[in-house]
Amino acid sequence: MGLEVRDVVVRYAGATADAVAGVDLDVADGEILALLGPSGCGKSSLLRAVAGLEPLARGQVRYDGADLAGVPVHRRGFGLLFQEGQLFAHRDVGRNVAYGLETARVPRAERTARVRELLDAVGLAGYERRPVTTLSGGERQRVALARALAPRPRLLLLDEPFSALDRGLRERLAVEVREVLKATGTTAVFVTHDHDEAFTVADRVGVMQAGRLLQVAPPEELWRRPASRAVARFLGYQAFVPRADGGLLAVGPTGLRAAPEGSGAPGGPGEPGEPGAPATWAEVVGSAFRRGRTEITVEADLGSGRRRLVALADGVSAPAPGTKVAVTLDPAGCAVVPD
Ligand SMILES: Nc1ncnc2c1ncn2[C@@H]1O[C@H](COP(=O)(O)OP(=O)(O)OP(=O)(O)O)[C@@H](O)[C@H]1O
Q: What is the domain partition of the chain in residue ranges?
């Protein structure tokens, strides 16, 4: 059954708006859900409410069908992992990981075996006797993860666990965490403002904005079928063009192609909002070579006013500002959203 969040409201004294404004959410047994949203949208507040660290102004949090109202944090059977894992400096790595097992009075031999198993799972086999002060930031968060998983929590709550680390390491850790959570069958809610991290780690991603959950869907579905313009804009869709038959065509970051003047030049502006339609003329503002391809910033009117857009280059290498290029919509990089 897993986690059930029903109409949860979190309200801070003196605040003008609710931090969490009526959220419903289900996380199935064994599922990894990422909560993604801009800073201040209420992700942490929701996570803390689930943990029991923040009181509910309204609503219910249930686990396996049981209402958790009145159940204190340490009785919920949840594991917590925050940005700074806050390891015990006076304990070595092994005894950090063993902490929850000691408080649960797990016998020593079993503890030792479990610590070994978890250090192995997080890629730190043999680190038992290392002082935590000698670890790198990434190693510390791995130890914190192993410590949180050691007592086999029925739900693991992670709040931006890698945001203090550099990008490359974060990307590797996101992959590793997913592997560890799947290997241990752990149910998890992972709070992040990093799109790539959310899409890498999660089975489903929930997009939050201003205290509300706008959409929850598997990564690819979320990307291909954003439920609203707000979700699409948050994901990085750059323009919204009205369609003849209603709705909007959302143009993604790879949804526009630019071709040089004279390469099968457009006859004129195409029908707005129809992928594959004849091209529109656009004026080059600038360009950048990134991730192995040329991204051209253009000014164009796709049918919703003249604006700056990014197009991928087809056979154009860094055209000079002011040059005219033909831009076409690439259906593979576009999505249809309701108004
Ligand atoms: N203890 C508190 N007292 C008063 N207001 C708070 C408190 N904690 C958070 N808030 C407010 O509640 C809103 C939601 O904050 P929250 O930390 O849940 O957002 P978040 O999405 O996790 O943001 P971030 O990614 O920056 O941590 C914000 O407007 C924040 O200022």
A: 3-231, 237-337
Contact 51, 73 (CB under 8 A): yes
Could you tell me which CATH number the domain at 3-231 has? 3.40.50.300
| Residue 213 near residue 36, CB atoms below 8 Å | no
Which pLDDT value is given to residue 266?
47
Distance of alpha carbon 194 from the chain centroid:
5
Strand order through the sheet with 212-217: 78-81, 155-159, 188-192, 32-36, 204-209, 212-217
Which residue has the least CA distance to atom 2 on ligand 1?
12
Which residue's CA lies nearest to atom 5 of ligand 1?
Answer: 12
CA dist 283 and 300 (Å) reads 7
Residue pLDDT, tens place only, 256-310: 999 876 655 444 444 445 555 557 899 999 999 887 888 999 999 988 789 999 9
Ligand 1 nearest-atom number relative to CA 42? 18
C-alpha 251 – ligand 1 centre gap (Å): 31
One-letter amino acid for residue 55 of the chain: P
Q: Strand, coil or helix: what is 236?
A: coil
Q: Are 237 and 251 in contact (CB under 8 A)?
A: yes
| Pocket residue to mutate for ligand 1, from 10, 20, 44, 191, most atoms within 8 A of Cβ | 44
The residues facing 86 across adjacent strands are none
